[in-house]
Amino acid sequence: MVHNQNISAMKPARSFRNIVSCTLVIGLIVAAGCTKKDDGSTSELLASAGNDFNVLIGSKVNLNGDGSTDLSGNTFEFSWSFLSKPASSNASLADNTTATPSFTADVQGKYKIELVISNLVEDRDTITISAFKTANIGGNYENIIPGSNVGVRRFTVFSTYLVATCEFTRIGSVAANKIAVFNGSVWAPLGCGLEEGSIYGMLEYKGELYVTGQFDEIGCISAKNIARWNKDTSTWEDVSGGLSGGDNPFGYTLAIYNEELYVGGQFEMAGNVNTTNIAKWDGTNWHAVGNMEGGSVRKLVVYKQKLIAGGFFSSVNGLSTGHNA
User: Fold this and answer.
1) Which of 7, 133, 127, 1 is nearest to 71 (CA)?
2) Distance CA 88, CA 107 (A)
3) I need a surface site. Which of 43, 101, 246, 269 has the fewest CB within 10 A?
4) β-bridge pairing 269-270 and 243-244
């Protein structure tokens, strides 16, 4: 916010007579201010246009400047105007001299609006409204356990396809067990999908789609909690023994770091390699990545050339850590 105040400067006195004259004028001004408190001379305005927010194209946008105030309790006027809007927009502000004007966001883009409040002084604030559009991917979505409104748990991009997973048995009018691909026009199943269990993480690595979760079979083949889809043969494949060991094993998150695929979850074995809750795969073999104990790994992400792990674990290789490392 910008606060503007009227500031007067007096020229230096040139004589004793001038000094007396100036003193008298100042005295009169102070006396008038003390006897008349509602003349606006003590106004201090604070304009508030509200917080930025997003809307869908075609929505009516209601603005609200009721948070604006004069700290001295004086009345003030409102004036709203566009500072910028999308080039092809015909939007105009209705009731722009009230506290609550409105307009219709007719074009995708950002609408920057300025609020000016004024009496003897003025203050101003701005708000930005971002308008966007959505497009539906055709078809009805039918789900089973845990209910009919499950939707999609996870999206990922694989080759030229969008891949979705959740507990559905049909998507976009086609049968697909818990995993399907969208080519921009229609949905298709990935083999016979997943009948029992769930997929929690998906990622493309070396031209293949890897999925991890909690399952013993996917695509009608045996696979323990991790598998890969080979687009050249259109088949699911086991990942060298998968993830196993411990109580209730599962994979939960995937990340690529230094050209290797890392998986986090809750397990004690990756293939025939001993490793607790985290492991890496080089495309051919499993490797240990130390032991994250006390709980599962739920997120892996690369940040500033480092692999960051977060979850419920409480120690790494015996050293205490606050659930991230």
Assistant:
1) 1
2) 7
3) 246
4) antiparallel
Of the candidates 198, 178, 200, 173, the one whose C-alpha atom is nearest the C-alpha of residue 254 is 200
Extract the tokens encoding 124. 């101003």
Residues 45-132, CATH architecture = Sandwich (2.60)
**Contact assessment for residue 300 and residue 309, using Cβ atoms and an 8 Å cutoff:** yes
CB atoms within 10 A of CB 309: 24
Q: Extract the tokens encoding 105.
A: 């966001």
Residue 147 has what pLDDT?
Answer: 43
CA atoms within 13 A on the CB side of 123: 19
Tell me the domain boundaries of the chain.
45-132, 191-320
pLDDT at 151 (0 to 100):
72
Cα R_g (the chain), whole angstroms: 32
CATH architecture of 191-320: 7 Propeller (2.130)
C-alpha distances in angstroms, 273 versus 41, 45, 180, 298? Answer: 80, 69, 31, 20
Supply the pLDDT for residue 318. 85
- pLDDT value at position 171? 84
* CA 186 – CA 90 distance, rounded (Å): 36
Query: Taking the chain (325 residues) in consecutive chunks of 10 residues, what is each chunk's mean pLDDT?
Result: 39 35 31 36 89 93 96 95 96 97 95 96 96 72 45 90 90 86 89 92 96 95 96 93 95 96 97 96 95 94 94 90 86
Helices (H), 41-184: none
Which two structure tokens, joined as six digits, stand for 185?
A: 């026009």
| Amino acid letter, residue 282 | D
Amino acid at 63: L
